[in-house]
Amino acid sequence: MAVTREGRVEGKVAVVFGGARGIGAGIVLRLAEDGARVIVGDMREELAQALAARVGGLFIRADVGEPADITAGVRAAVERFGRLDIMVQNAG
């Protein structure tokens, strides 16, 4: 039995904390490639902004050690896209 990803995240809204580089950036790229709308949350503003622009997403400055920044990420998703379907905590 083959496992496929087709349509699993198409149209979903995702926030990826720690998404500016490395594994986090890979997650952002894959989600966007598979049709998700992605918000990149990271403290590395230049890298995260560039990646968000590359995938047609949104950047938010986020320090996951600050609960208010996590709340801001959720709020950004809901305000921009009307909901949040996927949250990835990759920072740290």
Automatic annotation (TrEMBL):
InterPro entries assigned to the protein according to its UniProt record, in alphabetical order: NAD(P)-bd_dom_sf, SDR_fam
Gene3D superfamilies per UniProt: NAD(P)-binding Rossmann-like Domain (3.40.50.720)
Transmembrane segments: none
Name this protein carries in UniProt: Short-chain dehydrogenase/reductase SDR
Taxonomic lineage of the native organism: unclassified sequences, metagenomes, ecological metagenomes
